[in-house]
Amino acid sequence: MSAASRSRRWSGEVTQDLSTLMRQELELAKAEVKQEAVKTGKAAGMLGGAGFAGYLTLLFASIALWWGLANVMDQGWAALIVAGLWALIGAVLFMVGRRRLQQVQLTPERTAETVKELPGTLTEPVRRNL
Predict the structure, then answer these.
(1) pLDDT in tens, 2-49
(2) Interval 35-86: pLDDT, tens
(3) Are 83 and 62 in contact (CB under 8 A)?
(4) Is-contact 66 78, C-beta < 8 A?
(5) How far apart are CA 7 and CA 63, in angstroms?
(6) Residue 82: exposed, middle, or buried by beta-carbon count in 10 A (0-12, 13-18, 19+)?
(7) Packed helices 75-102 and 3-70: angle between N→C axes, nearest 10 degrees
(8) Is the Cβ–Cβ distance between 65 and 82 less than 8 Å?
(9) Using CA atoms, how far apart are residues 92 and 63, in angstroms rounded to an integer?
(10) Cα separation of 115 and 117, whole Å?
């Protein structure tokens, strides 16, 4: 067998192995993402339920505060105080949330760095015992 035919056979094997490896990695990634998506969906449902329960808790606590304040002042003023408290809480949450959103970087920096390294990795000579 000549050196040229061995080289062609070797490069064909490397190409086939690389193709198989990429397909297997892609299938593994799909399976992992699907599994994690199911877990995420269940957790999101639970968080949604907790959020609704928290909303109802705050609603009834606000009504109780309103009625409690109504024992010492006019009911209209008591309602206005409770509404003002919630307006203040909402404004603070808005400002903190906006500040945190401004700090978010949408570019996946670590991924960008590893992608930059990929061409060098693929062009390096492969050492294999022939």
Answers:
(1) 766 676 777 777 788 788 888 888 888 888 888 889 999 999 999 999
(2) 889 999 999 999 999 999 999 999 999 999 999 999 999 999 999 999 999 9
(3) no
(4) yes
(5) 81
(6) buried
(7) 160
(8) yes
(9) 22
(10) 5
pTM: 0.55
Q: Give the contacts of 68 (CB within 8 A, at least 6 positions apart).
A: 78
Cβ(1)–Cβ(121) below 8 Å: no
Residues with Cβ < 8 Å from 78, sequence gap 6 or more? 65, 66, 67, 68, 69, 70
Joined tokens for residue 101: 């959103």
Distant-in-sequence, close-in-space partners of 126: CB < 8 Å, separation ≥ 6: 14
Q: Are 81 and 69 in contact (CB under 8 A)?
A: yes
Task: Give percent above pLDDT 90 in the chain.
Answer: 50
Judge whether 66 and 79 are in contact, CB under 8 Å. yes
